[in-house]
Predict the structure.
Amino acid sequence: MTKPELIICRDPDELAHAAARAVSRCASRQILEHGQFTVALAGGSTPQRAYRLLAHGTGETSVDWSKTYLFFGDERWVPWDDERSNYKMAHDALLAVAPIPADHVFPVPTQLTSPQESAASYAATLGQFFRTTASVPPVFDLILLGLGDDGHTASLFPHAPALDVTDVPVTSTPPGTLPPPVDRVTLTYPVLNAARVVLFLVSGASKAVAFRVVWTGRADPHERPAVGVRPAGRLTWLVDQAAARLVQNDS
Ligand code: 6PG
């Protein structure tokens, strides 16, 4: 992994614009290089502004949706129309607004009978799309991630068994300590770390302690799971000043 890059943005709005530009640049580069762009979307609330900007993207925030394929880094095990659903957040902000072909969007199938079944089904979807087997993780062009106050990312929560799952690309996990208290389906570390680019979006004073611990890299991934994200490709942190207030940007 190359040295992680830290970009500190003035506020959530500047972070959203920087994130949308970064996604657009990555899409253009990957489409130029191999004809398509695959991205795993982050959940939670932070990415919402960036998704809205991408939905109306022009110029340096435009994306060729005809060559773009969208997946999810993790999902709450709730119906797609549930307010807690990461799919619903992305649908309302981006998927239903931009001219994205319906068959280019791959939601986690939370309508199945258990989180375990949903995880297995999503793993099969990834295998079919990326033509990979369980032991060879799919390589996303870009994975967007958030950071929880407890240092979790995707739905890899502190001390969770999911942190040690390395033989499949997707697993299920009980809720962490932070809301919403629902089961989750999440990409596993091998997939996160196989990505060409990982882009963290972190905003708000409540993330400052977790970000400092993760950025210094001294924590155990079982304590602060975001520490375990060490991609083969490029790792960039887009962090607003409130979340970065305890870190000096000497990168
Ligand atoms: C989720 C996300 C989770 C999120 C962080 C940050 O399902 O909630 O995948 O990992 O990115 O908890 O969430 P906020 O952006 O809402 O602070």
In short: The beta strands are 5-9, 37-41, 68-72, 74-76, 142-145, 170-173, 184-187, 197-202, 234-240. Residues 5-250 form a domain with the Rossmann fold fold (CATH 3.40.50.1360). The mean pLDDT is 96. The CA atoms of residues 36 and 67 lie 5 Å apart.
